[in-house]
Write a structure and sequence with these properties.
Elements: E1 2-8, H1 12-25, E2 33-37, E3 41-43, H2 48-52, E4 62-64, H3 65-68, E5 73-76, E6 78-83, E7 88-92, E8 100-109, E9 113-115, H4 123-126, E10 127-129, H5 133-152, H6 156-162, E11 164-168, H7 172-188, E12 201-205, H8 217-229, E13 233-235, E14 240-243, E15 247-250, E16 255-257, E17 260-263, E18 267-269, H9 271-280, E19 284-285, E20 288-290, E21 303-305, E22 310-311, E23 313-316, E24 319-322, H10 327-345, E25 359-365, E26 368-373, E27 376-380, H11 381-394, H12 398-413, E28 429-434, E29 439-441, E30 450-455, E31 458-461, E32 467-470, E33 475-476, E34 490-493, E35 497-502, H13 504-517
Parallel strand pairs: 1-2, 1-8, 2-5, 8-21, 10-17, 11-12, 11-17, 12-13, 20-22
Antiparallel strand pairs: 3-4, 6-7, 7-8, 9-18, 14-15, 15-16, 19-20, 23-24, 25-26, 26-27, 28-35, 29-34, 30-33, 30-35, 31-32, 31-34
Helix pairs in contact: 1-10, 5-6
């Protein structure tokens, strides 16, 4: 497969570039232009928090790329590598359609950033990101399940942990998600007979001294005051140092006991973009490709880029800045880039990207918001009404606008839905992080998983008080069980440790196999 133009990435920049280019080139564009996206939908990110808070249905915030980007060939797949010397991309299309080579004459990079949670120990294992609709649905299901569990137990400490949510990151996604979850949990508590007198706790953790730095100190301070007045706990100038299954530990040594941790931090450059930069010897701006004002990469007339992975110069009222990585800029860059590519294909010259900054908005829950529009600042109900009006107008597709308007109207009158429709995860393999002295399992507890120790060490204590330290690479399996399948030892982390748990059907099959062969999972374990 070979195209004149390949657009890599289906976010705001890529989708609107493909949509506009399809209109400019007409029906024949499907033979000349391809859009490669990891998913077949474009996610309207500004409304993602409302899916987690059960204000909107998941289909309300997505738009099928094949319907949005008419006249171009939409290909679903994950780009593994770009070979610039051969002008090809290697694409993994799925389980049965891997390793497809797609050629191009001109390449448009709109791959955005990726989530890297490896910088904080335990974040990858226990942190819940908010990048996709699937993330929002999983978070919604997790919060409802925590409410169900809390309603079931009578132990006060456990109930408090179950009703505590920690949100890391005080930017737009963090603030809006925290506000939505607080509304959702407070509004749902009255339907649980055992929780009506039990408070919920939402903690917003931010490494800087104020929220929403992009929107200005006054509105950031207003958002903080409103959220605190509604009962949200703030931890500003605080960084998360480590996370376990039931604890969030901060850099100053303090901690919060919680079973639900949401992370809106950890953005990192896309490795495919970095790989291409290495091939071409391009210097990046903190992982973003530097472009000319026309969105073309200097020295490479066949390479264009826009969106979060691009460092685009922007003339802001006479002052040259770098375009911020926001949806409104990505959308306008995608449209301008499409016009530039069409002009070049017709023998013309590209034009520089120009955009009059409109401002920023953030909804903070309970019919409240903050906004900065054309230099004017708004807050309260007026800002909330503006937020909904503006984003409703920006939402692609008349049908989706109508559905969102109906859902928002119903939300004003009816309670939010508490149904959990996601199937429970299989959890065949699950990563676990432990801090020093944290309990892995107690003697006499029923075995629910086998464990492989990836790093650190685990201290085993026998009933007679004898101890044994298991080093990295050890396996804790049925050799440590009694005849009833209960642990004969107590296991705690001798130091910070990472393990892989084998659970579910895989555990049952493995136990059966080991019983039949009468041998442990790893000899000598």
């Amino acid at each position: 497969m070979h195209y004149d133009v390949v657009i890599a990435g289906g976010g705001f920049a890529g989708a609107y570039c493909a949509k506009t280019l399809g209109k400019l080139l007409g029906k024949d564009a499907s033979k000349r232009v391809a859009l490669i996206a990891e998913n077949n939908v474009m996610v309207f990110q500004p409304m993602l928090a409302e899916v987690a808070g059960s204000s909107l249905a998941p289909l309300d915030v997505v738009n099928p790329l094949r319907q949005l980007c008419r006249h171009v060939d939409v290909l679903q797949g994950t780009i593994q590598h770009i070979d610039w010397s051969r002008k090809t991309l290697l694409v993994d299309g799925g389980r049965f359609t891997r390793n497809h080579e797609i050629g191009f004459k001109q390449l448009v990079l709109t791959l955005g950033s990726v989530t890297d949670l490896s910088r904080v120990p335990g974040m990858a294992e226990y942190g819940r990101p908010m990048k996709s609709v699937s993330d929002a649905l999983r978070l919604r299901a997790a919060v409802i399940n925590r409410l169900e569990e809390a309603n079931l137990v009578s132990e006060a400490a456990l109930r408090a942990r179950l009703l505590t949510v920690v949100v890391a990151g005080g930017g737009y996604t963090g603030v809006e998600t925290a506000g939505q979850l607080l509304d959702f949990m407070e509004g749902s508590r009255k339907y649980y007979a055992n929780l009506r007198d039990t408070p919920v706790r939402v903690v917003l953790v931010h490494g800087h001294d104020r929220l929403l730095a992009e929107i200005g100190p006054e509105l950031g301070e207003y958002a903080r005051c409103v959220l605190e007045k509604r009962g949200m706990e703030m931890r500003l100038k605080t960084r998360v140092a480590e996370i376990t299954a039931d604890r969030v530990i901060f850099a100053d040594g303090d901690f919060i006991e919680a079973h639900t941790i949401v992370t809106t931090i950890g953005n990192a450059p896309n490795p495919v973009v970095l790989g291409l930069c290495e091939q071409l010897g391009l210097v990046t701006d903190r992982g973003r490709i530097r472009t000319e004002a026309t969105l073309r990469v200097a020295g490479h007339p066949d390479l264009w880029t826009a969106g979060d992975c691009a460092s685009v110069p922007w003339n802001d009222r006479g002052e040259i800045k770098t375009s911020p990585p926001t949806a409104q800029f990505a959308q306008r860059q995608g449209v301008q880039l499409a016009h530039n590519i069409a002009a070049v294909m017709r023998g013309g010259e590209p034009k520089p990207f120009r955009y009059q900054y409109m401002g920023q908005m953030a909804a903070i829950g309970e019919h409240d918001a903050v906004a900065e529009v054309f230099g004017f600042r708004f807050s309260g109900f007026l800002a909330w009404w503006m937020w909904r009006t503006v984003y409703l107008a920006k939402l692609p597709g008349v049908l989706r606008r109508l559905r969102v308007m109906i859902d928002w109207t119903f939300e004003l009158v009816f309670p939010r839905d508490l149904s959990v429709v996601l199937p429970p995860p299989e959890d065949v393999l699950r990563a676990i992080h432990l801090v020093k002295d944290e309990l892995l399992f107690d003697r006499g507890a029923q075995c629910r998983a086998f464990f492989y120790l990836r790093s650190g060490s685990v201290l085993l204590t026998a009933p007679d008080g004898g101890t044994r330290v298991l080093p990295k690479g050890s396996v804790l399996d049925q050799a440590l069980l009694d005849a009833e399948g209960r642990w004969r030892w107590t296991a705690v982390a001798a130091e910070s440790a990472d393990l892989t748990a084998i659970r579910g059907r895989a555990l049952k099959l493995l136990q059966t196999e080991l019983q039949l062969t009468h041998r442990p999972l790893v000899e000598g374990s």
